[in-house]
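Private note to self, pasted from the team thread so I don't lose it. Backbone tokens:
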């Protein structure tokens, strides 16, 4: 090779080298955006996914096949620029993917308890542990982002997805979600908090508009998200299906840019919910970075909008950049060698621990705990226990430990023939049903297995006590029915009545377990029960957790994350939910305003069946020595001493409520501002718990000024173990009004409506 040819070769090489597009790394995201063609960018903001597959274990919707079968979706790969496809999978009760065959053996992920149960622990540390366990499964199964937690406010007990959500209160919701996100993300994978925002019903979720005031939005529906986002910085946020005040959330720049990016300074990525919204270019413009799971028309519409100038390329670039900033954080990008061997042993133990801590003892007339003996175990759900809800929050686990299995393993004596009879009846009834084709098909409970009077008489003579389990499940795509779901049906009531009379006649106790996705009516029948326990949908280890509570091996410490009303009609949203017109509601008017849940019942003096925050223990606690300064000075440090004054070890939840002066603004009688759970306290042991109240936690939203404001005056701190059981109070003054933050004056109702005021 002569000199000239060598030089030409070098030149050609360096030329071709300089024409090589940049390869994505964590420091060159902007450069990569620059190197993308317009078509590539348009293609990139639209994801991939969505098909429905049938596995031998049932339907798996949203399967993208490929690397992780059963995952809900992925982003587009661009090998030219070194951009891999990253994987997203559901959901709030654990990783929903297709059971994977590894070395000839099927691998199932862990079905954890539902969100409402996790919230019932009032234990953020435990929520963090669950998140960590879920994150471990996400990472080791090759997934990058878990589409969880679900954290919409529980506005009405009939919402079909309440089970995925936490609470009727934004502080409890926000704190539990923050801990969950921090747990998930501690594993180096992302969380996606959802559904942002006001997705409080399933009825016509893709078309309904929530007509809601700015104050209710800021103080309730947005507030939980705000807390979680500020305390845990989730990698992604999922906008919701519904509209707010007339505009789809995914097309709403007031929500996704003015509030999320400007007011809250959120820096992560926003994805749509799957197939949400209508106007794709508006979604891009609003700051909804990723459109999932990708539709053909999206690309066309986005291109048209760029061409006609209604969408700027700079807006598209901004979104592409945010998706890439997510990509570079993921295990897939880092080429993490996922093992397909998560730590299932540890994760199962956590699933059981949280199940035990989230079960709520509502009533106990010396019926529990039960010492080992013969139990009459009744109710279909004792044998065919509901462990989770349906829809994208459904997890296919390897097994379910039914309440029967758990009690049996714990040494209780149970009737084997009765179990056989129940199971063959349930199987037969289920076989009569059409095959479940979609995860959106809700699993309705089978009509109660008939038990005769004679059988009950005999059982009441032979057994120490009876347990009846009432089962419910619900899920995505439809709301619960008042008549056939919220209230117990005739067969269930008949079983409760007949069992109560047979067992009470023998001086024996009846325990009722509510294996439910969301609260049910108890007023009409609960007098017949000597003990009442909400087990929620407790995940795959259900029975072990249940047996430990029944036997007293674990002392219950769950507290209600939502009020149980005396009757459905007492609930402030009862008449408005799920909106009008009846069949396919297009508008849901939130005319209860800020008076959701206990905020309503406590402010309007309405009695309830069980208040928010309520739950019994096998021991008793005292709360004493509340210390609170007399004046609020930038912040307020409180402390209170909790003592276990009973006989057995247990945990208690301290709930800090506040009553504001309510001189300049309408305020609820009390609002939860902080909470903490004690350690396991032995008999006579005490623990002092401390809390800090900040101006942010005291402030209310003044819509007229579009600002968070702490009004001046005297506040009362109310410390207790439910919204109705206040054990210690103190007062402090705020000498001068504090304007904490002025925020964007956005999301105004698109029409006038009457809002409840005190
Ligand atoms: C649900 C989301 C879920 C998504 C992907 C949607 O139908 O609303 O919660 O993450 O599907 O499966």
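Design output:
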């Amino acid at each position: 090779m002569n000199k000239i040819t060598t030089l030409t070769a070098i030149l050609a090489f360096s030329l071709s080298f300089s024409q090589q597009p940049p390869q994505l790394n964590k420091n060159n995201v902007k450069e990569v955006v620059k190197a993308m063609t317009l078509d590539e960018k348009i293609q990139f903001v639209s994801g991939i996914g969505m098909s429905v597959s049938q596995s031998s274990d049932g339907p798996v919707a949203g399967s993208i096949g490929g690397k992780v079968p059963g995952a809900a979706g992925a982003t587009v790969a661009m090998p030219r620029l070194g951009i891999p496809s990253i994987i997203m999978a559901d959901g709030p009760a654990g990783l929903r993917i297709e059971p994977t065959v590894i070395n000839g053996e099927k691998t199932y992920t862990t079905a954890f308890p539902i969100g409402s149960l996790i919230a019932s622990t009032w234990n953020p540390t435990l929520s963090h542990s669950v998140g960590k366990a879920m994150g471990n499964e996400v990472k080791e199964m090759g997934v990058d982002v878990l589409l969880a937690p679900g954290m919409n406010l529980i506005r009405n007990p009939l919402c079909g997805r309440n089970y995925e959500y936490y609470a009727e209160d934004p502080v409890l919701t926000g704190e539990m979600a923050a801990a969950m996100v921090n747990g998930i993300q501690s594993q180096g994978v992302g969380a996606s908090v959802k559904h942002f925002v006001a997705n409080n019903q399933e009825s016509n979720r893709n078309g309904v508009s929530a007509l809601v005031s700015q104050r209710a939005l800021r103080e309730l529906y947005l507030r939980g998200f705000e807390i979680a986002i500020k305390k845990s910085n989730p990698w992604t946020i999922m906008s919701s299906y519904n509209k707010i005040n007339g505009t789809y959330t995914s097309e709403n720049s007031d929500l996704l840019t003015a509030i999320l990016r400007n007011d809250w300074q959120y820096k992560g990525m926003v994805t749509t919910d799957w197939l949400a919204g209508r106007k794709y270019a508006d979604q891009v413009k609003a700051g909804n970075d990723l459109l999932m799971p990708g539709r053909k028309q999206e690309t066309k519409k986005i291109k048209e909008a760029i061409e006609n100038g209604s969408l700027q390329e700079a807006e598209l670039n901004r979104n592409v950049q945010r998706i890439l900033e997510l990509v570079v954080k993921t295990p897939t990008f880092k080429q993490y060698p996922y093992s397909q061997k998560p730590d299932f042993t540890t994760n199962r133990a956590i699933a059981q621990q949280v199940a035990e801590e989230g079960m709520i003892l509502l009533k106990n007339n010396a019926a529990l705990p039960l010492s080992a003996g013969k139990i009459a175990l009744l109710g279909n759900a004792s044998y065919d226990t509901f462990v989770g809800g349906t829809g994208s929050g459904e997890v296919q686990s390897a097994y379910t430990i039914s309440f029967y299995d758990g009690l049996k393993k714990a040494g209780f004596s149970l009737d084997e023939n009765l179990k056989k009879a129940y199971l063959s009846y349930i199987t037969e009834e289920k076989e009569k049903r059409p095959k479940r084709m979609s995860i959106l098909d809700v699993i309705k409970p089978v009509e109660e297995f008939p038990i005769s009077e004679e059988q009950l008489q005999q059982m009441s003579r032979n057994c120490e006590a009876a347990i009846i389990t009432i089962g419910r499940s619900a899920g995505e795509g439809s709301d619960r029915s008042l008549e056939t779901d919220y209230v117990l049906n005739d067969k269930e009531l008949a079983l409760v009545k007949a069992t109560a009379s047979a067992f009470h006649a023998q001086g024996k106790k009846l325990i009722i377990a509510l294996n439910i996705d969301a609260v049910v009516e108890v007023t009409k029948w609960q007098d017949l029960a000597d003990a009442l326990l909400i087990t929620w949908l407790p995940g795959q280890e259900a029975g072990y957790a249940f047996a430990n509570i029944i036997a007293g091996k674990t002392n219950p410490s769950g507290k209600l994350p939502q009020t149980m009303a005396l009757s459905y009609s007492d609930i402030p949203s009862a008449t408005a939910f799920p909106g009008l017109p009846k069949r396919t509601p297009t508008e849901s008017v939130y005319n209860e305003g800020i008076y959701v849940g206990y905020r309503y019942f406590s402010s309007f003096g309405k009695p309830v069946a069980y208040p928010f925050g309520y739950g019994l223990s096998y021991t008793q606690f005292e709360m004493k020595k509340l210390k609170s300064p007399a004046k609020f000075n930038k912040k307020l440090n409180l402390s209170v001493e909790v003592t276990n004054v009973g006989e057995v070890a247990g945990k208690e939840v301290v709930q800090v409520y506040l009553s504001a002066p309510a001189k300049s603004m309408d305020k609820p009688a009390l609002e939860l501002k902080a909470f903490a759970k004690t350690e396991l306290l032995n008999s006579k042991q005490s623990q002092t718990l401390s809390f800090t109240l900040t101006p942010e936690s005291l402030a209310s939203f003044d819509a007229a000024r579009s600002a968070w404001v702490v009004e001046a005056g005297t506040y009362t701190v109310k410390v207790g173990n439910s919204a109705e059981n206040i054990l210690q109070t103190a007062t402090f003054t705020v000498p001068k009004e504090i304007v904490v933050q002025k925020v964007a004056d956005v999301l105004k109702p698109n029409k006038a409506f009457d809002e409840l005021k005190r």
